[in-house]
Amino acid sequence: MTIVQTRGAPPQPRRQSVPGRIRIISGVTVASLALLFAALAVGSTTARDGLQVVGHDAGPQVVATAGLYLALSDMDAQVANALMMGNGYALERGRALARYDQRRSEANQALLKAFELSGDSPSERRTVQSVLDGLGEYERLTGQALLLDKRADHAPGPPPDEVVEIYRQATDLMRLELLPQAYNLTLENGTIVRRTYDDKNVMVPLLRGAAVVAGLIALVCLLWLQIFLATRFRRVFGPALMAATVATAVAMIFGVSVLGKDQEALRQAKSAGFDPVLTLVRARAISYSMQGDQSRYLLDKERADTYEHIFLDKSLSLMYLPAGNLGTYQDKVIRGSEGYLGLLGPELAGRRGTEAMRAYSNFQNADLAFRDFAIAGRTNEAVTARLGIVAQWFDVYDRALVALTQQHQDEFDRAIKTGESTLDSLWRLEPFAVGVIGLLVIAGVWPRLKEYR
Amino acid sequence: MKRALILLSALAMLAGCASDGQESIMDKDDIVIAVRSDLPSVGFRKPDDTFEGFDVDVARYVADKLGKHFTLLPVLAADREKALLNRQADLVVATYTISQERKAKVLFAGPYHVSYQDILTRRGEPIRNVRDLKGRSICEVKGSNAAQRVVEERKVAARLVPFDDYNACLAALKGREVDAVTTNDVILAGLAKQDPSGLQLNNAQFNEQRSGIGMRKGDVPACEAVNRAITDMYQDGTAARLLDKWFGTSGLDLSTAAVPQFEGCS
User: Fold this and answer.
1) Entry pTM
2) Which residue of A has its CA nearest to B115?
3) Domain covering B27-115+210-247 assigned CATH 3.30.1300.10 in the classification
4) According to the lineage, what is the superkingdom (chain B) (predicted)?
5) Do residues A171 and A294 touch, judged by C-beta distance below 8 A?
6) What is the pLDDT of residues B97-151, one digit of tens each?
7) Which residue among A127, A180, A202 sits closest to B260, beta carbon to beta carbon?
C-alpha cells in the first residue's frame, strides 16, 4: 500500500529516492520469487509424501494384510476338505494338509506386516495379538480333529460326530473371532491410505494455487522493475531482467503443471489402483471362505442349513441381485444378469471382468450340482463334485480375479511411477531455476544501483 | 510484508473452500441418535420417557468414544432411513440390519452385533432346527418378514397365523394357539426375559442378521471412527458386559462375544 501511495505522488526527481525504490521493488520481487519456489517445494514434498505412503509404504502393506484373511479362510477350508475326504482320497488329503501349512506360513507373514503397520495404535496391536493367540488355539483344535478323523477311518463324507464336534469349535473360533479381526485390520489399515490421500488431495491444489499467486506477483514485480528502470535510466531493454521474467514464467508454468500431474497421478493410483486392488483382494478372500462353507455344508449335517445360508450371504455380498434363497440366486446368476451390486459387481468391467463373471457363474452352477448330490444323499458323488468340478471352476474364477487384480496393480504402479518421475524432473530443475533467476535479477539491478555509488 | 499477508489470506480462503466439500458429524458437538422405542431389552422407551436396552447402551458408548453430546430420538422400524435422510438423526442404532439395498442409501458402520433368526417356544417343547417347524403353526407379525423367510427362503412348510404385534403373538403362544415365534434372537430374548417361566429360546441360529450403525452416505471419517469405537467396545469387555446385562438370563447363547466383521466404510 505504501508503494502505491508513493507512486500516486507527483514524480520527484530527487536522485536519492531512486536506489531506495529499486531496492524496494527488487526486494518484493525476490520475496515473491521465494514464495513461488517455497510453494513449489512444499507442494512437491507433499505430493512425494503422498506417493510414498500410497505407493510404497501403507498401500502395498494394506494389500498384504488382506492376504491374512485369505490365508486364514483357506486354512479352515483345507481342514474341512481333509475331514470330508475320509479314507477315499489319501493323495488329496496330503495335498490339502500341505496347503494348510503353506497358508499358515503366509498368515504368519501377513501378521508380521500387520504388526509393523499398527505403529503405535494400541487397539490394532491388541487385535494382532488376539489373532495370534486365537490361531494357537485353532491349531490345537484342528490338530485334534484331524487326528481323530484319521483314526476313525471313515468313508468320504461326514466324519463321526466327535470329529464334527471338535471341528465345529475350531471353525467357530476361526469364522466368528479370527476372520472378522483379520478383515477389520485390513479395513483399519486402509484408513491410513484414505486419510493420507484426502489430506494430500486438499494440500496439493492449495499449494498449487499459492504457487500461481506467488508466481504472478513475481512476474508483475519483474515487469514493474523493468518499466521503472526503463523510464528512469532511458534504457528500453534490460536483457537480464527480461530473461529472469521469462525464466520465472517458465518455472511457474512447469512447476504448477507438475503439481497438477502429480495430483492426478495420486488420484489415479488411489481410485484406479489401490481401491480396486483392495476390493478384489477382499473379494478373493471371501470367495475362499465360500469354498470352505461348501465342505462344511457336507460334513456337518446339523448345521448344513446355516452353512448354506452363509454361502448365500457371501455370494450376495460379492455379487448382489435380489434373491431370497440360494436356488433363485443361482438361477439368476446362471441365466446371466447385469448390473450387480455388492463388493465385486461394479469391479467386473472389461474383458477380464467378463471372464471373471463367466467363471463365477460356472462356479455357482457347479455348486448347484454339488448340492443336488448332497440333498439326494449321494454323498460320495457330492465329495467328488466338491473336489472336482466345483474346485476346478473355483480355480478358473480365482485366476480371473487374480488377473483382474494384476491389471489394477499395473495401473497403480504406472501411476505412482509417472507421479514420481515428473516430481524428479521438478526437483532437478528447481534449484537450477532458483540460481539462474537469482543471478539474472542481480545482473539486471546491480549495475543500476552501482551508478549511485 | 503486506503482500505476504494478502497471500496468506488467499491461501486461507482456498483452504476454506477445499475443506467443506463433505460435512461430517465429526465436526458437530451435539448429535442425535435414533433408537427403537418398542423392543424390550433392545431399545425401549420407559413410562418416564427415558430409554433403555442394549442398543441404547451401545449408542451411549459410541457417542462417548466420539466425544459427542447426544440426544435420543425414538424410531420404529419403518422410520429409520427417513430419520437419517431428513437429518432428524445423525446415527441410527436400532437393530438396523445391513443389506445391499439399504447400503445404496445409507452408510453402515459396524455391525456392532451379529444376531440370528431364532425360535421361541413353550418351555419343554424344544425345536432344534428350522426344519422342525414343518407342519407347526408360527406367528406372522405385521411388518416383519421373519415368518415368510422360514416358508419361502427355507422352504419349510410351517403354518402362518397372522397377528398384529409381538404381544398378541406371545399371548397366543402361551395359550397354545401357535407353537412357535420366530424373529431376530435379541428381540426374542427380550420377550422371553419378560416371561422367564413359560418360554424358552432354542438357539436354532439360522439366518445371520448384522445390526449396523446407520449414518448418512459419504461420511467416511465418522464411519471409521464409529468402527474404531466398536472395536474398543469389544476389546475393553464392554460388549460382553452389555450382552450379559441385557440378555444374560434370557437363554441366548452368549459364548462368543467377538468383534463382528465390519462392512467397510467406502
Assistant:
1) 0.84
2) A176
3) no
4) Bacteria
5) no
6) 888 888 889 999 989 999 888 899 988 887 878 888 888 999 988 767 788 888 8
7) A180
